[in-house]
Specification:
alpha+beta, eight-stranded mixed β-sheet, disordered N terminus
Length: 170
């Protein structure tokens, strides 16, 4: 069960009018992109009862395909999923981002080189992140993500995949 400190997963902030009244505190996340070395420290993506457009643009940039510098809007529900995941794990350490958005070209290339890359990956539509968090085992991250029942969760050798697609696990 998700506690009162969590934001529900939503289509848009305006779609759920009660959010501005019930969630007055800011929501922030920190990220470190393992491929580019870039980071966002305490990026406040939710303030004054709504998403902060500038913060979402910063997240989109950090989550871009590092191979070709292309980006698309990242699903705000993915950011909420990650926020809820950090709260469930009881940490404010940065998410180490292995993969966020993947262009269709990059996804096709990875499918040729790597086992387990989906042809219709949630990464290609900005709805997935491959992550790890220092101080937490992959099993701990996976278990916490599964408890949220917010989308797909898969554990690999060096990261956990989370997405806002159908609820499933591997």
């Amino acid at each position: 069960m998700i506690g009162a400190s969590f934001l529900p997963l939503i289509k848009s902030a305006s779609a759920v009018p009660f959010l501005s009244k019930t969630l007055r505190s800011d929501r922030a996340l920190s990220f470190y992109n393992t491929h580019t070395g870039e980071s966002l420290k305490r990026c406040v993506f939710w303030a004054n009862g709504r998403f902060d457009p500038q913060a979402l643009r910063s997240i989109n940039r950090l989550f871009r395909d590092h191979r070709n510098n292309k980006s698309i809007p990242i699903d705000p529900n993915l950011i909420l999923f990650l926020h809820n995941l950090s709260k469930t794990m009881g940490t404010d350490k940065p998410f180490h981002l292995i993969s966020g958005y993947r262009s269709p070209e990059t996804n096709a290339l990875l499918r040729l080189r790597t086992h387990g890359v989906a042809s219709k990956s949630q990464h290609t539509i900005g709805r997935a992140a491959d992550i790890f968090v220092e101080g937490r085992s992959l099993k701990q991250i996976q278990k916490a993500a599964l408890s949220l029942m917010a989308g797909g969760v898969g554990r690999y050798d060096s990261f956990v995949h989370v997405d806002t697609g159908k609820i499933r696990s591997w």
